[in-house]
Structures are given as structure tokens and as C-alpha cells.
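Protocol step 4 of 5: obtain the predicted structure for the target chain.
Materials: sequence only (see below). No template structures provided, no constraints applied. The aim of this step is simply to have a reference model before the mutagenesis design in step 5. Sequence pasted as it appears in the construct record:
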Amino acid sequence: MASVIETRKSRLLLLGLVLAHLVAISKQVERGGQSLLGQGLFALVTPFQAVITGAIRGVSGGWAGYVDLRRVYEQNRSLQERVRVLEAQLQARQEQAQEAERLREMLQLKKELPLGVLAAEVIVREGAPWARTITVDKGSAEGVRLNAPVISATGVVGRVIAVGPHASRVQLILDGQAGMGVRIERSRVTGILVGQPGLPTAVIGDLVMKYVPSLADVVVGDVVVTSGLDHLYPAGLVVGRVRSAARGNGLFKEILVTPSAQFNTLEEVMIVRTPLPDDTMTQGVR
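Step 4 output (C-alpha cells):
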């Protein structure tokens, strides 16, 4: 057993001496300016270096990509916030422009009307789509009186039915209990214009022109204005246009009138303070 171990030691020693001799020789032998040992080691190490370098580059590239992605994300959030701010500013500017246009129309109308009028702002609507009254921010302290006509830049709105010190309630002409004397501007045919009771009036928005003879000259598209015969509304204020005119089954026509006042978007109105005598108004509300 001892002889076997000694034999193995001798062989290992011999192999080590041979390898040492080969290394010494390879260090002395040069090829292309480099020793054989250096070339061997270079060939052995190069693949591992390539793998390590690729891994380092991958990690570095991934980190750089992550940093760039975070930067883009932050920029995107900043741009989105800026867009929201600009949209809000644009909306505010549009609202201001629309308000300025409405005020300009009302100022122009005020100049043209031979009436004393007071500008007022709508502050309360009835909490339903079929609202028949509104509240405005002017009252007795500003000279508003009961039954004063209320108009807008596009047509008649209604009349004051309750007055407080600094607010008034206005009954819209859409109300089924509201009524006014009107005439067809073209043919001078007169009648009574009333609101339709119930939900359909609020949805359709049509008014009914009553007591017009079946043979009277009324056609679709005719302009309807106040007649002044009710002693509430001055004559000549535009109320709306005829939407339909049928002969009817009795003595009177069946006439529907679409009001010209824009009740769904009503924000500013004018309250008439000094109505003139009947038939003295020549300038209508257009």
C-alpha cells in the first residue's frame, strides 16, 4: 500500500515538473511579440471577459432605460397637469367671452328700447326641469314693482309676481297660469298666449295662442309680439314664432308658438320699470 502511494506521489511530482518546465519554456517562446503562455491565458480568459462585459452593459443599459422612463413619466405628468390648467383657463375665458357677449346684447337692447329697464341676474331656479319661476337679484330697493314685465335679449321672459327688498320672483310665460295679449306682427291678428299646464310644456317649450278665428291669416313662421292690450306688457315685444297653425274643429285656430327667450340658458334679464302706453313701442326685442 505504501509503495502505491509513493508511486502516485512520484507521478504527480513528475507531472508538476513537466508542467513547470513547459511554462518556463512558453514564457521564453514568443509569437507575434507575446509569449505562448500569455496567448493561452488570453484565449482562456477572453470568453469569460466577454460574458462579464455583456452582463455589465446589460445592467447599465437597463438602469439607463429605467431612468429615462421615469424622466419621461414625470414629464408626461407635468404636461398633463399643464394641459388641465390650460383647459381650465380656456373654459374660464370662454365663459367670460359668453358673458360679455350676453351683456353686450342686453346693453344694445337697453339703448334701443324706449323703456326704463333694470338689469338683473338669475340667482335661483326651481329645482326641476319644468321650472316655471325664477328669482332675480333685484327688488323693491332697486325700484322693482309687482307685475313688472321681465325680458331678455331674445324675447319676453315673464312678469314679477313677488317682490322683496333685494330679490324678486318672476313667473315665466311657460307657466300654465301665465297669459298675455299678443298679435301676429305680419297680419296684426290678436289673441291670448298662455302656457301649457303639466310636464309637456317644459319639455316641448311651446305656448298656445288662443281665441284666433279659424279664418285668420296666421302661418308657420309668423312672429308673435305683445299687443299691449293686457295692460301688463308693453306692445311690440317679441314673444316667439308660430310653430304650427291648424284650422281646428271649432271657431278658433289651434296655434302653437315657440318662445324666443332661451329659458334653458337664461342668466341675465331686464326688468321693465316704466312701461309706456299701449301701441307706442316701435322697436321690438329681436
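Step 4 remarks: The radius of gyration is 47 Å. Confidence is low (pLDDT under 50) at residues 275-286.
Proceed to step 5.
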